[in-house]
Amino acid sequence: MAAFAQRNLDLAYLIHVQTKDGDRREDKEWEWGAYAFGEQGPALAERLVATVLAWDRHIRAEANDQYADPVLTVHPASTPNDALPAGDVLDKRHCRLVFRWP
After folding, report:
1. How far apart are CA 14 and CA 78, in angstroms?
2. Cβ burial, residue 79 (10 Å; 0-12/13-18/19+)
């Protein structure tokens, strides 16, 4: 799951449902969607979808044999910047979210 958020009440997150199963990764299919909450939620969902589509077109498609998912890590709100892993940081009231897109 991936998410974008602003302020404490606005959130957009990515969900997926498997629609076709198979023994190989190539045989499986997924349906993706973005859910939005709060006043800025729809704009955040649009940003999230645009990011995922860009990743799908420019990163995943070019390296299909080395497929990798985005990584989300969660850290205490007091974690200093230099102690966070590389990635896009989203600060929330109680935690810091770090998204890394391969």
Report:
1. 26
2. middle
